[in-house]
Amino acid sequence: MSNQIKHRKLGTEPLVGLYYVSECIKCGWIGSSGELTEDDAQCLQAVGDDHCWGDTDEIGADRLLELMQSGAFDKPATLLKSEPVAVLYADGAVLTKAECGNCFEICCKVETPLYAEQHAPVAVVLPFAEKVISKLRRFEECASDNQDVDIGRHWFDVLTQLGLLNRVQRSPAYWEMTQQGEDALEVARLNTPK
Ligand SMILES: [Zn+2]
Cα of 78 to ligand 1 centre, how many Å? Predict the structure, then answer.
């Protein structure tokens, strides 16, 4: 698996059912395996008039987080178009566009322009964290009612790799929430505005 690919594309399909997160070892695309060819899981990303046809690997939460943290994904197009919203002066002062008025464009050229998109990496990681918490919450709900837990096989693996669940029986498969999982839910509860 190459770490040299710098401009990765993120798949657009949500992860559902028995599909899993996959990485194309040729072009670096990351997404649901539902977007790959059905028979041999080859990459269908457009390359010119053809598809990439690269082989793909199933990846886990650890690899996904590593890629997100390395900033290897293409930024969404809307962020690329954004203009500076403020300017940072050498003495540490920050003036917004409105405060600078007519000279804002010149200020941006001679000082350091600031962009709203500089918060983007957090915004990209957050949906994943929210999804993890919602799956963990669903696990807790179902388990406390003695129902089958319907979060999908893949999510059992993700939550287990994150140390939030512990597989206590192999066949039939059976999981328990770890102390870390209970703590994560507690923190999420405390952070949820009432
Ligand atoms: Zn590919």
Answer: 23
